[in-house]
Amino acid sequence: MKKIAVDAMGGDFAPQSVVGGVEKARNKYPDLRFMLFGDEQKIRKILTSDKNIEIIQTTEVIDMNDEPVKAIRRKKDSSLVRAAYAVKEGKADALFSCGNTGALLAAGLLIVGRIKGIARPGLLSTLPVLAKEGGAFNLLDSGANADNKPEQLYQYALLGKYYAESVRNIKNPRIGLLNNGTEPHKGSKLTLEAHNLIAANSSINFVGNVESKDILKGVCDVVVADGFTGNAVLKAIEGTAGTAMHLLKDTIMSAGLLGKIGGLLLKPSIMKIRNKMSASQYGGAVLLGAKAPVVKAHGASDAETVYYTVKQINDMLENDMLSKFTDYFNKNV
Fold it and tell me: Edge-to-edge strand order for the sheet containing 205-210?
């Protein structure tokens, strides 16, 4: 029976959205257990049933303005730190938060710890492929590290491969290296060396360099990047998607009565496009390389997004993804 430690106070709409999403997931997955860390009084006001849910009272919250490492060290009774220690001590199998990203990464590295042999865990995000229905790809690293070495990008290729196989059930997933051109001789010193390392491993289905303009078309299943570049691409995609929907709405509203009538008729199709562009259905970002699943959902997550993130964590636990990582790196590093 698996248990998830949840930072119930992290996020813009906590604890309401967190508790609502957890309860929906609890009803869907009766074998899961949850440890909710936070203000017990506030949590109980929202909770409809404590079945399979344990509330652990905490007195502090790490907010979005806190400096991550300092907050982890000073706010020992915060909901995030207490949840992280529950995983470290073996009381829970995974850590989940919608709160401060830097603090969660720090907690994952400093408290939960990293798998032996992995130099720097990376943050993996799942994004939609717009070229086909139901498609998606993983981006790794999407922001855990500002600087990387070629060996770390090589490890991300392996981590991404095992995640795609174990969690997304993709056989022989296609791995691409984010670059400024598809030719193997293009790129920075970092990407040139990483390209050679990844290409030398025959167990990786390496499709070579990929450009940012093509990744939404589904050219590969996993996109490998350094954390600075990956985060910039992630935010550019999110920003473009949001702006496109706002432009569409503004165009319809400013087109007069006929435009508004046309917009009303097209509303189902527009909503379908919006849902396709939303990454919430794919869950949160995963700190791959930590000793246990450490997962971050967006700060503005609603209950539905929290539910999908718990589903993602459940898939990781059910497929024993961490054991595959650990076995590989223990044998090969």
Answer: 53-57, 33-38, 3-7, 94-97, 294-296, 285-288, 122-128, 136-140, 222-224, 174-178, 205-210
Tokens in use for 314?
């459940």
Q: Mention every residue, 6+ apart, whose C-beta is less than 8 A from residue 6.
A: 18, 22, 34, 35, 36, 37, 83, 96, 97
pTM: 0.86
Q: Which residue type sits at 58?
A: T
> How high does pLDDT run on average in the chain?
88
pLDDT digits (tens, 9 = 90+) for 3-24: 999 999 999 888 999 999 999 9
Q: Is the pLDDT of residue 216 over 80?
A: yes
Query: pLDDT tens digit string along 148-180?
Result: 999 999 999 999 998 999 888 899 999 999 999
Q: Helices 150-166 & 321-332, crossing angle to 10 degrees?
A: 140
Helix (H, G, I), strand (E, B) or coil at 93: coil
Domains of the chain listed by start with CATH number: 1-118+289-332 (3.40.718.10), 123-284 (3.40.718.10)
15: Cα within 13 Å, side-chain hemisphere: 24
Helical (H) or strand (E) element with 34:
strand 33-38
Residue 20: which region, alpha, beta or left (left: phi > 0; alpha: psi -120 to 50)? alpha
pLDDT digit string, tens, across residues 234-264: 888 877 766 666 666 767 667 677 666 666 6
